[in-house]
Specification:
The chain has about 280 residues and is mainly alpha-helical. It is built from ten helices and no strands. It has helices at about 1-10, 30-40, 50-60, 80-90, 95-110, 130-140, 145-165, 205-220, 220-230, 260-275.
């Protein structure tokens, strides 16, 4: 665990948060919350400043409704992200501000539970995914934190999981899936056969293909990767006048390209050519 703790301490950005990958300059609540929870559980004295700064980053990010967005304060709050932030705040050194923020976040989470016990899917295709995070969070809430509310949410989660489990055990990747298979194809793709699942086996050739695929994906800009993994996602972005003032996508990559920036670039190139010809 110590090498992982050292890596997470070193990956902390100046705002106290953490990016989703090395080289990314945009903090996000998802990775920051998981890092705070891990470092607090690790318990090494040298991790205390990183835990404190990470918790403060999350407190600064909390929305007025009590929930937490993924990237920028004021963006819509997310159930999965908020659940992780509650666990991180409760894992960090106890103080009144963190506990108040965790209680506010829990109250918001309770309002997001649907009548069937489930929650909206935001960053994951599986409808069971946010439910799993809610159960994990409910189990670490102090007994004095709305005990009736916690039991009510857990009971609804249990009913939802019972109702959506498949006959063979497990839960589907997508709500419309009829089997809990990790290699379930997308609509329109052929179903997997015993031969076609060979690429998922741990053979030298299959492992080499997986490594090559990972390298290819990592070479893509993060915003493109997110669009590929979450089709139809409307990516938030920092607008001009935000903290970095560059109109960057949330991960800190790829300056936005619009007609204004394209025209401006063409104008600058024309000026350079004019100077050279003169």
């Amino acid at each position: 665990m110590e090498p992982s703790a050292r890596y997470l301490r070193a990956a902390q950005l100046s705002d106290g948060g953490r990016p989703y990958a090395a080289g990314v300059t945009q903090s996000d609540a998802d990775d920051s919350a998981v890092a705070v929870t891990f470092l607090a559980a690790h318990g090494a004295p040298e991790a205390a400043p990183a835990v404190k700064a990470g918790a403060q980053y999350l407190l600064n990010l909390q929305n007025s409704d009590g929930g937490f967005p993924t990237f920028v304060r004021g963006a819509p709050s997310d159930v999965e992200i908020t659940a992780k932030c509650v666990r991180a705040l409760l894992a960090s050194p106890p103080n009144d501000e963190s506990h108040r923020a965790a209680r506010r976040a829990w109250r918001w989470l309770e309002t997001r539970q649907r009548a069937d016990g489930g929650f909206a899917c935001e960053w994951n295709l599986s409808p069971a995914f946010p439910v799993m995070h809610m159960v994990d969070t409910a189990c670490v809430l102090p007994a004095r934190t709305a005990p009736n509310s916690v039991q009510r949410v857990l009971a609804r989660c249990g009913r939802y999981l019972d109702a959506t489990s498949l006959p063979g055990g497990g839960w589907p990747l997508r709500a419309e899936d009829s089997q809990a298979h990790p290699c379930r194809p997308s609509p329109g793709q052929p179903a997997h056969t015993p031969d076609s699942t060979a690429e998922f086996r741990h053979t030298p050739a299959a492992n080499a293909r997986r490594r090559a695929g990972r390298r290819a994906r990592l070479s893509e800009p993060p915003a493109l990767r997110l669009r590929r993994s979450h089709p139809g996602t409307d990516l938030p972005h920092r607008r001009s006048g935000s903290s970095n003032g560059k109109g960057l996508y949330p991960y800190g990559y790829a300056r936005r390209r619009d007609s204004h920036s394209t025209d401006k670039a063409a104008e600058q190139a024309q000026r350079k050519d004019t100077r050279r010809s003169g």
